Structure formats: structure tokens, C-alpha cells
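User: C-alpha cells for this one?
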Amino acid sequence: MIGRFSRWFLIVGIVTATSGCDNVSWGGMSVKLEPPPPDSASASEGPESEAESGPETIEYGPLLYAGFRDGDTAVVVPVAQLDEGRLRPFPHGEAANQLASQILEERLRRGEELVLFHHGSRIGTFFVTGPADAGTAYCPRRAAAAGHIELIPSALEAQRFLALEKGLATDWSTGGFAPIPLARAQRNAAHNLAAEALNELRAQWPAALQDIRQDLQGFQFSESQGPGVVASFMFRDQLDVQPAPETAYSLLIFGEPSGNRFQRTFTWYRRVGEEGKGAPRFFSWLDWDRDGSDEVLLEVFGSESRWWAALDREDGIWTVVFQDPCGTPEG
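Assistant:
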């Protein structure tokens, strides 16, 4: 009978009962059989548990970041992957959650540095101090990190910026940044070009065009070109993440100098009832693909989340070359 259980351990326990500190009486004996632990060979042959193997690592490349300043600190979020200079979107669902965790552990660890850019120029450094709350939800989910910033004197008023990992910014020299003031001609051009666009689109007119303008910025992509203007208009809506009625729309226009006038070189028009809310705000620009001409990043606000879109000039025409999938009408 013992031979039959030769690979099992016989566990014998003596049970005692006490009635005082020094008095011990016999309480009986308990016996049970337990199998031996698996040997190393059989253990290595079995499948690993999910907890032991962990989730599969997601491969990703260099990243473009966007940052929002608050005094001497800021929060950055990844915009997209840079694949040979082109933006590639992040995955959705659980894969987005996993990638966000990886980026925090691998690219946005405490002490890491990012190079900051504003208006196409290198303006300083971002020093990661730890994870952060990204604020209003992004789609898809993104990592967010807080940190301290150091800026060149001419860029001390910058509130939004782009950022690259140090290894991608070795051929950018610091400096060259100059603020772009908004002149009266630019402000007038923004309204004139918006009116022109609304007529072409046969969009419903507001009571007063200046009442629905919610963002106005200047830009200058090259020294050979004078300063241009970009403006966002919101009809029956706000430039923020919130629901909007079906009759609401958003309009963004670029106005660039051409001789003694401004020419509309890009128009974004999106009606909520037809495509869902997607209201853009001009964020910044940078030649992130290093082809000699700048690309533009837009921050887009939806009914429940925000996302990113990018423009590039091809044959003299601005076109949308990237947008997070959740920003499309089907998303």
C-alpha cells in the first residue's frame, strides 16, 4: 500500500490539548496525503499563466508631443507616432491603455527631457517629474506627464508648444523665435475671409460674425512671407468638449498675405448634424518631417472627447494629412 503512494508525501500531525501551562495530554493524530511539487522539467513544459507572461509589448517609434503650460510647469501628451516624418495614429481600446502605460514607463519617466518648439522654433526644455492628468479625455487614451520647463527669454509668453525627444532634435538650434503680433489688417482679414467662406458654403449666418469668433492667432511660416492669420468660429456651440445641437457648425480659416491683400488658403467647415462635432483650434506648427516646409497641428474638440489633426502643404494647397480615427464621421 505504501508503494502505491511512493510519489506522495505522508503528512503526520500530532494534536495536543492543554489544560494548563505545564500539563499536556494526548489529543490524537491526524494524517493526510499531499502530492509532491512539480519538478523543474514538468514545470517548464506547462503553459505560462497570463500573470506570469504579462501583456504583449506594443512596438512604437519616435513620438511627437503637445504641451500646455501653467506657469513654470506644463503637461505634455503624445500626439502620434512619427513614422519617417509622417504621423501615425495610436491604437484604440485596451491596446491604447497598454501603450499609454508603456510610454509613461519608457519615454516619460521622471528625469527624462523633451525639446520644446513654438512657432516652428526651438524654445527650451521640458523636464519630466511624473505622470499627470491630461484633463478632458483624449480619443484614443493617451499618456500624460507633468514637468518643469525652461524657456528662452523671447518665448516666455508661450502657452502651448510642441515637443520632441532629444534624439530627434539634434539638428535644431535654440533661438530664432519671435512673437507674432496681430495687426488690425489681420483681424479684418479673418472676418472678411470667414464671411467669404460662409457664403460659398451656404451656411447659416449668425446675427454678428464677431460674436462667434472664439480663437484668433497669427502665424508666419517663413521670413519671406508676411504674417498670416488663423481663426475659429463656432455657431451655436463652444470651442470645448461638450455636446452641440445638430444645427451647430465650426469653421476655421487660414488667411495668408498675397500682395496687398489676404488670401484664404485653408477652410475647415463641419456641421454637427452631418458629421458630428469636430471643432478645430490652431495649435502650433513645426517642420517635424524635415522636408523644408512646416506642418500644422490642430486640436479638435468633439462632443465627448478631443483629438488631433495635422495639415501639410502639397503643391501650394493645405490638406488634412492626419486625423485620429475617432475624429472621422465613422469613428
